[in-house]
Design brief:
This protein is 30% helix and 18% strand. The chain has 457 residues and is of the alpha/beta class.
């Protein structure tokens, strides 16, 4: 593992507790005073309401509930797109998928061969600013663990990490499921080096395979009938347990007072009751079950905990984290720097929020529109979803069925404040609102050749 090469004494011969912990705890100054440590906690495939603090009646998430009680929580958070790789790239670059060009997870295959080499997708992380790369210039050490699609951790600008470069994380996917010792060692290393640090904790959880500890599975199997749902619920709590282990470690090291922790999920998930697959209106779709997530910011003593209902997105995280680090923002970022609003407890001024969704596999790496499936926007309580023409060539059966259900009503308008589970399509009742929002989508992302799908009579 390259982590061993970078600081072998910490990873091979020392456990986190063999360092003089008290000495580290008393050493809070770093070479860049005023620069907070920054920790990203990223869930993987979890519905927006699958948390205790979001009101779930069965799932228990005591550690994230506690973090929420110590955080500014945006209950109406969103991601720009409902699938993991492009969502993670937005977090890393602060760009929409059509800007960073990673619109799906893999190149489309025809006749079992990719239509272009996967390596060509990795050029995007070279050509765009990455959050770890910008923070490195500000004196930060950074550590990647968990999901990371864009080659090795070094290619993303991390100074340390676990992923060596194969598909979506290789050795990095061990984090959480096999403990957090490598993270603990890195944090102690950064403290010993007197450097602020950025930690990317994106475990492969609760993402399938759903293989929770047997005790957690039995707990939920006694509460729900479906073994598939029980396994998923158990995975959510297992993920929560690892979050508690991480936060407790930061507390034990005396770091929380100078550490900003931010949290979200990469995309949604609704568990099928009859199989291990995801259900309609969740992953890969622009429904609330695919794109909505709570977004939290916690910095004890600096940010006053609050529940807030403004619209925020993962497009805002890149500039906001750089704002917290007092770093210069790259030009042309489409998201909002929320930092001063968070500190001053001021409202977020945003008229509209946009998002997009594409095929799982990328048709043309240079033409995002070739893979386009949906565009959507949020304005106050209103949400408009537009489906665009396109084929389902080489689509897996479950993915086809998911999209068939959503695209059966290709123009969808919802009041998601009154109808958060999108039970009533209001498009026919409010055609002027549909047209108004469609014009705003067209002004933001004008398709050159794709047309809005028409409902077949």
């Amino acid at each position: 593992m390259r982590l061993v090469i970078l600081f072998p004494l910490f990873c091979v011969f020392m456990s986190p507790i063999t360092i003089n912990a008290q000495k580290l705890m008393n050493k809070q100054e770093n070479d860049n005073p005023g620069k907070p440590n920054i920790v990203l906690i990223l869930s993987d495939d979890q519905a927006w309401d699958d948390y205790g603090f979001m009101g779930h009646a069965v799932i228990e998430t005591p550690n994230l509930d506690k973090l929420a009680s110590e955080s500014i929580v945006f209950t109406r958070g969103y991601v720009t797109t409902p699938i993991c790789r492009p969502s993670l790239m937005t977090i890393a670059t602060g760009l929409y998928p059509h800007q960073h060009k990673i619109t799906g997870n893999d190149p489309l295959k025809k006749n079992k061969k990719p239509v272009f080499p996967r390596e060509e997708l990795l050029e995007s992380i070279d050509q765009n600013p990455s959050l770890p790369r910008v923070l490195q210039k500000e004196g930060y050490l950074s550590f990647q663990s968990g999901k990371w699609w864009e080659g090795s951790f070094e290619r993303g600008g991390f100074t340390h990490g676990m992923t060596e470069g194969s598909r979506h994380g290789d050795k990095g996917l061990n984090i959480g499921r096999q403990g957090l010792d490598t993270i603990f060692s890195f944090v102690d290393f950064a403290m010993a080096e007197n450097k602020p640090f950025y930690l990317w904790y994106a475990p492969f959880m609760p993402h399938n395979p759903h293989t929770p500890p047997d005790s957690l599975y039995k707990k939920y199997a006694s509460r729900v009938k479906s073994p598939y749902i029980a396994k998923y619920y158990a995975m959510v709590e297992w993920f929560d347990i690892t979050c508690g282990q991480l936060i407790n470690f930061l507390d034990a090291r005396g770091l929380r007072e100078n550490t900003l922790v931010y949290y979200l999920c990469d995309n949604g998930w609704i568990q099928q009751a009859t199989s291990g697959k995801f259900a309609a209106r969740s992953k890969q779709t622009p429904m609330e079950g695919g794109i909505r997530t709570p977004i939290m910011f916690s910095w004890p003593g600096r940010l006053k905990p609050a529940l807030r209902n403004e619209l925020v997105s993962n497009i805002d995280l890149f500039p906001t984290i750089l704002g917290a680090a007092q770093a210069q923002l790259p030009p042309g970022l489409p998201g909002l720097d929320l930092w001063n609003k968070l500190v001053e407890e001021e409202p977020i001024e945003r008229d509209i929020l946009f998002g997009e969704a594409y095929r799982h596999d990328i048709v043309d790496k240079d033409d995002p529109e070739a893979s386009l499936r949906y565009l959507w926007c949020m304005e106050g309580p209103w949400k408009l979803v537009l489906s665009y023409e396109g084929t389902f060539e080489n689509e897996q059966a479950n993915n086809y069925l998911i999209h068939k259900e959503v695209r059966s009503e290709p123009v969808r308008l919802y009041n998601v404040i009154e109808d958060p589970y999108e039970n009533t399509n209001l498009a026919k009742r409010f055609p002027r609102k549909v047209e108004q929002l469609k014009q705003k989508i067209d002004a933001w992302y004008p398709p050159r050749y794709k047309k809005v799908l028409e409902k077949k009579q």
